[in-house]
Design goal:
The protein has 10 helices and 10 strands. It is α/β, with parallel strands linked by helices. The chain folds into 2 domains: about 100 residues, Udp-n-acetylmuramoylalanyl-d-glutamate--2,6- Diaminopimelate Ligase, Chain: A, domain 1 (3-Layer(aba) Sandwich); about 120 residues, Udp-n-acetylmuramoylalanyl-d-glutamate--2,6- Diaminopimelate Ligase, Chain: A, domain 1 (3-Layer(aba) Sandwich), CATH 3.40.1390.30. Strands 1-4-3-2-10 form a 5-stranded mixed β-sheet, sandwiched between helices. Strands 5-7-8-9-6 form a 5-stranded mixed β-sheet. The termini are far apart.
Length: about 260
């Protein structure tokens, strides 16, 4: 019998137990049997319902269930949305484990590896620093063509861009998720890159740095894909890992719809 604990042990194994982490079991029992696992980027209400209705025993989610990094619920007590979501989880008995710190701590970063595969950019990545990408000599790319590629491979209808859309791109950085303005700006300032692709920014930080750089005549540009689409395909790394480790368990990937739409 495969249990929740056995699945979690496999996910933790490449790193070892972290002393401080948000990656904990949010619901369910460690000794519960697992016959079907759902991998998601976000435990949305719709994703949980779909998982429950399809007989999933364990959900592995990259991001929080309760709208804050630590999944704290006390401050939401009595809130209709929180209570309804919590009731669905508790009544179903489904187990939910957050996999954020561990997958980012894999060597190399599991989310980054999954995103490079999805974008078909594995061969562009520097072996020493996989966030640093060099485009093939002889291929002409601009910020505009890179944006079109991202839209096609990630299923994005629109994204934010700072800088010149027609700027030629030879080297670029890929920083999925929301690593923060200082991290973005330090990467842009310390690497010889034309374009930085990120998931999420504070618009008054990275965006404004790139605008100033462009206004100074420096060849810098930024693409902001949105947090979810910058990391979601990265969770396919987890799908592959668990299918290999537990061939007798049904491992499903549930893609979430975007929380907001641009109109």
């Amino acid at each position: 019998m495969i249990t929740v604990q056995m699945v979690l042990d496999r996910l933790i194994e490449p790193v070892g137990q972290l002393e401080k982490t948000v990656d904990t079991l949010k619901s369910g029992r460690l000794d519960a049997e697992v016959r079907k696992v759902a991998i998601v980027f976000m435990t949305t209400y719709a994703a949980i319902k779909q998982a429950v209705e399809s007989g999933v025993d364990l959900i592995i989610t990259h991001e929080p269930t309760y709208y804050n990094h630590l999944d704290e619920g006390e401050w939401l007590s009595g809130n209709l949305v929180y209570e309804k979501k919590r009731a669905l989880i508790e009544e179903s008995g489904i187990a939910i484990f957050r996999l954020h710190d561990y997958v980012h701590s894999y060597k190399p970063d599991g989310i980054l590896v999954g995103m490079l595969k999805q974008l078909e950019w594995e061969s562009y990545a520097s072996p020493e620093e996989m966030r640093l990408l060099t485009l093939p000599t002889g291929e002409a790319h601009t910020v505009r063509t890179i944006a079109a590629h991202l839209k096609s491979k990630l299923g994005i209808e629109s994204m934010l861009v700072a800088g010149d859309l027609d700027l030629p791109v030879k080297r670029m950085g890929l920083m999925p998720g929301a690593s923060g303005g200082r991290s973005h700006i330090n990467f842009l300032g310390s690497r010889d890159i034309d374009l930085l692709i990120v998931g999420e920014t504070n618009e008054w930080e990275t965006n404004e740095y790139v605008r100033d750089a462009a206004d100074m005549g420096l060849k810098k540009a930024l693409i902001v894909t949105g947090h979810q689409k910058s990391e979601e395909a990265g969770m396919l790394t987890v799908v592959e890992m668990l299918r290999e480790a537990f061939p007798e368990v049904n491992i499903a990937f549930i893609e979430c719809s975007l929380a907001v739409q641009r109109i």
